[in-house]
Amino acid sequence: MIYKTQSYPQIKIIHVILIVFFFTACKNSSQKPIVETGLKNASEFPIGTAINIDKLINDEALMALQISNFNSITATSDMKMNKILPVENEFYWQMADTILYYAKKHNQRVFGHNLIWHSSTPKWVEEKGANDSIWLAGFMKDYIHKYVSRYKGKVAGWDVVNEAFESSGGAYRKTFWYNNLGKEYIANAFRYAHEADPDAVLFYNDFNIERDTTKLNAVLKMVEEFKMNDVPIHGIGFQMHIRMDIPDEIIAYSLKKAAETGLQIHLSEVDIIFNTHNDERLGGIQKYDELTEAMKIAQAEKYKNLVLMYRRIVPKRQQFGITFWDFTDRDTWINGFFNLNDWPTIYDNNLKPKLAYFGVLEGLKVEIE
Ligand code: XIL
After folding, report:
1. Is position 163 annotated as part of the catalytic site?
2. Of these residues, 36, 166, 210, 269, which one is catalytic?
3. Which residues sit with their C-beta closer than 6 Å to ligand 1?
4. Contact 211, 248 (CB under 8 A)
5. 36 falls in which pLDDT band (50, 70, 90)?
6. Contact at 8 Å (CB) between 251 and 210?
7. 224 is catalytic
8. CA distances from 82 to 121, 123, 182, 267 (A)
């Protein structure tokens, strides 16, 4: 496999746009505009993207942008259980290995997403485990041990359990795992991951916790219980799939509450939509058919504020990083998953940086006290 690393024409265009943007944006003459080639160069913490690895390595333009902007990488789906172990006893490591290879070559951190998630549990596990919870408990242990130790020292951190709470409110989600193993499966998953790689940073990851205080409190209560019982949890992942109308004040409050745990905070799956949905597959509600200039400006502002809140509220030593979930509107999961036509990311359909991109860049660069 050959990965090109030379600069590409679109990077030169970015340079020009950046200069223009910063000279116009930094009206305050005390803020010196510094021209950067990518988000990672403007950031004190890792800037990541989730991406489909096959798509990435077969698209030179996409790869050039990925390399220039990001120093952390997450697989959108290639490292989930249904991809790693689609059939009993047949581990498929090839894509994960490719991500590791790519990341090493381009000096990027690999973040593991994820070990246990109801939505990516293979059918064969559900069938076998539904009749035999003793087998299931042993399977979970072996799977995590095998997977995490294979990438020990190479995958920096893991979403150990993903989305273990209901979409809204504070109840544990009644998943296949919960129904067969009880809520203890969550703590056990963390224990097993820690046994396999004591240096890996272990996260609990969920959505809507930036806006639903009941859900956030339930997650924080679980974290407290983990701490009391010496369960090795090191971080909270805010997926941060947000909408333009989620108030920044609520997001700020939630980040503050989570940061008070002292754990690492990862904005793990950032995107910002205009339309809405009911949190279910194909549950999109189309409200806006067109992306207007005013919407582009508002989205840039929202992205900027999100980055600024992260920098201001989360203490530096707890800043694990910000990861975008796909970074182009062409590739975003939102439209296919929710059956929407939206524009949630920082690059447009033609892989050109949107105002949102410059919003992020500004959020990273503005001096804060
Ligand atoms: C999404 C992927 O991006 C899609 O390609 C796939 O079809 C479904 O999963 N929360 C998560 C991610 O934790 O794993 C999901 O990723 C998006 C929502």
Report:
1. yes
2. 269
3. 76-77, 162, 239, 269, 333, 337
4. no
5. very low
6. yes
7. no
8. 6, 8, 22, 24
